[in-house]
Amino acid sequence: MDPAANLVGTGCAAYAEAVPEGEGSVAGMAKDPVAVAASNNPLLTTLTKAVSGKLNKDVNLVDTLNGDQFTVFAPVDDAFKALPEKDLKAVVENADMLTKVLTYHVVPGQISPDDLKGEVKTVEGDAVKISGSGDDLMVNDAKVICGGVQTANATVYLVDSVLMPPSK
């Protein structure tokens, strides 16, 4: 199957142009489990550091993410840069909060772009709201830049904002 067959989002062409081949390309990501695939994607360096214990040594979700089927809403590096530095630092320094934020970006099971709609419960426990469709797909207030990217065990949606779980 063509890994690019189900891609949605206005940023897919730019992503394909920026990473036309190799492990971080759409075709390359399809060969690896999601955490490995993300680590090869040059748009996801901050997310990769966050899930692999490089931002907080007490938060390492690599084995978890590679060990089951997931849908992952992956904030690109610019999404992290858009956060106020003090807010990002506060989340990164608190292992429980960082885990909560990261798992709010992950949904059990692989969901294709055509089936991604309504409210979807995350691994964190709260739901994200999916709206729009095709190239206008949104997750809460985050725009999907390029979604439907396949990895060996996940469907990935690159998003332009870091999703924050609701405060309780």
TrEMBL record:
It holds the Pfam family Fasciclin. PROSITE patterns: FAS1 (PS50213). InterPro entries: Adhesion/Biosynth-related (IPR050904), FAS1_dom_sf (IPR036378), FAS1_domain (IPR000782). GO terms for cellular component: extracellular matrix; extracellular space. Gene3D superfamilies: FAS1 domain (2.30.180.10). Keywords: Lipoprotein, Signal. SMART domains: FAS1 (SM00554). This is Cell surface glycolipoprotein MPB83. One of its GO terms (molecular function) is cell adhesion molecule binding. SUPFAM superfamilies: FAS1 domain (SSF82153). GO terms for biological process: cell adhesion; extracellular matrix organization. Residues 31-163 form the FAS1 domain.
